[in-house]
Design brief:
- This protein folds into 2 domains: about 240 residues, no CATH class; about 90 residues, GMP Synthetase, Chain A, domain 3 (2-Layer Sandwich), CATH 3.30.300.
- Helix 11 runs antiparallel to helix 12.
- The protein is built from 12 helices and 17 strands.
- The strands form 4 sheets. Strands 4-3-5-6-7-8-9 form a 7-stranded mixed β-sheet. It has a 4-stranded antiparallel β-sheet with strand order 10-11-12-13. The chain has a 4-stranded mixed β-sheet with strand order 16-15-14-17, with helices on one face.
- It starts with 6 loop residues before the first helix and ends with a strand.
- The relative contact order is 0.11.
- InterPro entries: ANL_N_sf (IPR042099), CapK_Type1_Caps_Biosynth (IPR053158).
- This is Phenylacetate-CoA ligase.
Amino acid sequence: MSRQPTPEEIEEIRGIPLYQPSLAQGYFPVLEKPVIAEGFPENWMTPALAAALDSGDAEFVLSTGTNHARMQIIRPPYFLLHSYYRLWSEHPDIAETWEAGCPRVSLTTVMATEHVARVNAKRRGGEPAATPALDERRLDARTVYLNLSRDPALWDRAEVGRMIEEIRSVQASHPSGRYHLDCSTSHLAHLVRKAADWGLWADFPRPASIIHAYEYTPATVRRFLRARFDCPIVDLFGSTELGYLYYSDAEGAYHPYLDRMSVELLETVPDSGLYSLIVTSLRNPYMPLIRYRSGDVVRTLDGSPDPNRIARFTGREKELLPTPHGPLSQGDLDEAVAAAAPGVFQHQLRLYEGEMAELAYTTFTGGPLDGAAERALAEAAGSLTGRRCRAAHHDHLPIGRSGKYAWLAAHS
């Protein structure tokens, strides 16, 4: 039986036009993204929201697209950042670095850096510099952004040296010489590899804590980073429209963080054990969401639809690949890749006509796998997908316009 909103939740959304048909029927179906977009923003407009937009207490933003469409939403300014800071300050493994006032260095997509530079330039009444200085990349008193180019695989030695020096300058600003590192794990892995290759690893200041929160992290990348950083590494799961819903502990187990929220899991296909994440949230007062399909898919520890037992966030629902064995998620393929070939850094499944596929991959060493490991990789991918699959080493895998990697691609 589907979860329906509580009396408290109904009071919060009673005046919102979007929900009037459901209120009249006494039943709330799953809320899909196209329904949110249809008639936006009038379908959300109330006198209170209009006043908040006029005063600046609410703003229009776009959801962060990875390899999927972006959606316009309304939320308080810095909604996601405040959710991040609160969770950091309360996290059982890393709250100490928040309390110690550790500055935050963010290594993620260049789009994030450019956004901060644009906002700062607008405050000054000018245009952002082509190459903004570190102070021009400061989000607030606590956070600065590092990345100045789209593809981290193409960073040169000078760029890596610049980022390490900027981290050192931030570290030196703290009385105890400590800092917190916020990152996309692929960007951090590229930086670590390049620093080691160019003899700069000894100069890389070690962080006091690490949070990654922006993309799916491959299991091999997670192992690579844990082997190189002797500090808690925490994953936060959330979205622009919801804030953060779950966090991992230092051992990698996930815990719910559902302030003014609830979650239900709906199986994508019967008996698949793969669940859609359905969220009811009053956390954003300007767009309360009732039974909202976030677009994410998960697996649980015991295969049950218990949101307290989520084991893995396995990717996006729109990216599920139909196979003879049922839908295949990014996380399912990643788990098989990590088991078959631990030396793989990045991978992409490329689909061709006639049930052919190629598992394109890079490695942490830069060279190809040996023949046995490459055959094992191809067999693992073929078994999961039901396709004739070969594994092929590449020196470089392209990054998307969003600054994130796609795990699945169609090729002619």
